[in-house]
Amino acid sequence: MTEERYRHEIAHLARVELHTPNPDGTLWFFKDLLGMYETKREGQSVYLRGYEDPYQWSLKVTEGPEARMDHAALRTSSPEALERRIASLREGNLDGAWSDGEFGYGKTYEFDTPDGHKMALLWEVEKYQAPPQLQSKILSRASKKPLQGLPVKRIDHLNLLAREVTPVKESFERHLGMKTHERVVDGDIETGAWMSSSLLSHDVAVMRDARGARGRLHHVAFYYGIQQHTIDAAEMFRDYGIPIEAGPDRHGITQSSFLYVFEPGGNRIELFGDPGFLVLEPDFETRTWTMDQIDTGTAIGGTNLPAETYFTYGTPPIEPIPDIVRR
Ligand SMILES: [Fe+2]
């Protein structure tokens, strides 16, 4: 059986938990500026969802000593797919264990990537049911578009930093059935890979950590669906003091429109204007970008992704922390 037969076993990125040393600032960013709804508050954590997120939460914000990703969870396409992916992870000797799950989700299989990122797979979810005052007349929409900030529709994707890209990429391909649609090489070194198990250009990306650290987060992305909203968001962030790292512009890699900012806790967040190209071909061949093509790959419109932050800063942060993040 070829790996191709395992495609579509991972449906999408369901949720991410971020830690923040500045919970008030982080919650102001996600609730007031990005219009996310709060669905639960417990202990040091607050659960949030965008107005088209289908489950109880897509983002959990937890107070902690430093900005970082606690974990990210992918939902499989069926209970059987979950069992098959777990069996494959176990064959590959990737450490993992079941947990009982938490608010809005059932039992969850937790494992570490070869670089140490905490990931999880799950099938069981509690679909979000809007109370009458939040029910949308648009039937495919899980709740009304809120009248605050510039609201994001839903979580989109995850970008991980890794000391070595290739082992993480290969584990996602081999055990999760993901396909790498695009990659970047610098000579013999693979410096980036964008992969999914669906028609999207990526659910997960992995990029080389220029600081040589392991298991860090580059960014979590939230989806607008309309490129103009990234320009509107840039104006909002300027006015309200959120540091903009790069954008709005369009990547050549994935062909998606982007805007990168730092939320007040220090995690990098991407606002994703549109999904970029869709991978409809079942036998799509991986595109490999080389360094002589990288300017087009990073930004078609010529935006400079700043070397002093974009390729070195991740969370948890490593000193020296750039001034733009410290503000
Ligand atoms: Fe991204």
Number of strands: 17
Strand order of the largest sheet: 14-15-16-13-9-12-11-10-17
CATH homology-level superfamily: 2,3-Dihydroxybiphenyl 1,2-Dioxygenase, domain 1
CATH topology: 2,3-Dihydroxybiphenyl 1,2-Dioxygenase, domain 1
Alpha carbon gyration radius: 19 Å
Q: Helicity range of the residues?
A: 10-25%
Present as ligands are: fe (ii) ion
Q: How widely separated are the two ends?
A: 53 Å
Pfam family, one: Glyoxalase
Protein name: Catechol 2,3-dioxygenase
Organism: Streptomyces kasugaensis
InterPro entries: Glyas_Bleomycin-R_OHBP_Dase, Glyas_Fos-R_dOase_dom, GlyoxalaseI/FosfomycinResist, VOC_core
Can you describe what's shown?
The structure is a single chain. The termini are far apart. The protein has a nine-stranded mixed β-sheet. It has an eight-stranded mixed β-sheet with strand order 2-3-4-1-5-8-7-6. It has a single domain, classed as 2,3-Dihydroxybiphenyl 1,2-Dioxygenase, domain 1. It is globular, with a radius of gyration of 19 Å. With 327 residues, it is α/β, with parallel strands linked by helices. The chain has helices at residues 23-33, 79-91, 165-176, 228-239, 294-298, 323-326, and strands at residues 10-20, 37-42, 45-49, 59-63, 68-76, 96-99, 108-112, 118-122, 154-162, 179-186, 189-196, 204-208, 216-223, 244-250, 257-262, 268-272, 287-290. The structure holds fe (ii) ion. Fe (ii) ion (FE2) binds at residues 157, 159, 219, 221, 270.
